[in-house]
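Explain this one:

_____
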Amino acid sequence: PAFMGEVDIFKTLQLLPGVQSVAEGNGGFYVRGGGPNQNLILLDDATVYNGGHLFGFFSVFNADAIKNTTLYKGGAPAEYGGRISSVLDISMKEGNKKKLSVEGGIGIISSRLTIQGPIKKDKTSFLISGRRTYLLDLMQPYINTTDFKGTNYYFYDLNAKINHTFSKKDRLYLSGYFGRDVFDYKSLERGFNLSIPWGNATTSLRWNHLFNEKLFMNTTALFNDYNFEFTGGQNEGEQNAFTFNLYSGIRDYSLKTDIDYYPTPRHKLKFGAHYTYHIFTPSLANFEAGDTEFDPIESKRFAHEGAVYIQDNFDISEDLKIEVGLRGSMFQQVGPYERTQDVEGGTDSLKYGRLEPVKTYGGIEPRVNIRYKLNNSSSIKASVARTNQYVHLVSSSASTLPTDVWVPSSDIVEPQSGTQYAIGYFKNFKENNYEASVELFYRDINKIADYADDYVPEFGEIIEENFAFGFGKAYGAEFFLKKNFGNFNGWIGYTYTKTENVFDGTLQNVASPDLTIDNGKPFVTGYDRPHDLSVAVNYDLNDRWQFGGIFVYASDKPYTPAVSTFTNTTGNPGIIYGDRNSSRIRNYHRLDFSVNFTPKPKKTKGLISTFNFSAFNVYGRKNLFFVFFDTEQPDDQTVKITPIGISLVPTIIPSFTWNFKF
């Protein structure tokens, strides 16, 4: 169903069993107990590091520009690597080579426009697609009469692609994406201002060459850049005035070659090599408080990442199909790099020059997928996959807000590794009108990075020295029932998942040994939701009217509770927290509804219009995003704690959009 005028890829994925979203305000998705940083998201082969707009209410992928979407929840082919949870591979449309076409939508929240067509008929085509929100722009006359004058939020993105056919054997594709979120918050009464812009940029240049009918090659040059900036300050009184600026980002330059070879109709080989040069900026900061100014702090990291792989797919018989893959990966941190380390009797300085090797990691990643047909309508599938992950998104919460920091494996941070086992039974029935499946999975994860207990950020620090390292596991079951055809169609998905981590000091931080979380006791992750239910329904009343609905339910979200208080030496109250994620926010559920009306659906030429009305959170459920604790001190002897739940969408959100195509 289309909500806020458009179909959203992330929202659809989150309705599938094994895929979860924690709540509104999270830009990521969670697959089989893995975190959002453990999903590899590709757009025309380029990595996208943050897939959410508007803190997760929209994805960065404009559906009008998307041709294909493939999600691997487990057992991804050996051509994919670098993440231990899942792979989401998205390809853009290539442009209409026959005629010019235009489609888009104008709504009260956002508008979008896509134009595609031939540059040279049957030889060269283009596509360009743009989107922008403007709801708070329209509200500025009202906002400017309040204490929040100047507060605004909007996002925009642009997709573009051009492809050219040189001959029957050679084609060239050039595509790009650029998107940006801009959030400004101001309070005149408090003299406080805050600005958070963030976004992605990608470019892909691919050459497809056909050697013969059995052998072809894709060679691709890639660029991607993700960054966010966090700027703020307060100008209320000279003593309390301060300004700060934080910047973080990651930039990649990549080159890859993939070769497909079909020796027989029932046998396919794929092999290739990938290389990436990473530039990480975990933190770049400067700070001023009153008359005190701190020197800017810049902390960049540089690394090479490479891999070679081979994938062999063959049908042993009509009933038995096997895919065997082997991937060898390497990651090397290089200079310039400098840090100090504790040695007996003092400290020692480690210093490396440009491109000088600092630390090298590597590993072998085998993959096996098996499908056995029991009969023409049912089969059993099983997979085992070992993967390594060399980049980490570290956060003190389960949120994927843009203030989270990407860091590489280094002489302090070791790569993550994981092994996933899955087996499932799949069946179609009633002439393939229905499909059903049951899957079981188990995943172990090693060398997870997280902030240690009682971590408080400090200006100019090396953040990696504050990481604790641990290991975890996730297991569960997925149930899926889908009706594929007919005026009434849709699906029901249910997932039971359990995730658990342990940070007991066994895996030490070489810069700060013995860091633990909860004294080494097991704890559930912040995205552990044991029960997750999704229902998606579409009903075509006739050619003019289509109705859609979504209902989602998820069990309670974990959080860390406050258990007691104290008063420090200055008389100010403080909070003592309990075990990590030992309490849970109340369960989450929501109903969405949409209606499409097409006045002249049979019109094949000229303008085709569709009017979409949608309602998000129909019955106004106040689902909590997080809980914080307010302290009051009625007297010198008493400190009172009040838990306060924050809901990002406490009421229904209606939307109206005119969609058009010609």
Observations:
- The radius of gyration is 26 Å.
- Residues 9-13 form the longest helix (5 residues).
- Confidence is low (pLDDT under 50) at residues 397-402.
- The chain has three helices and 40 strands.
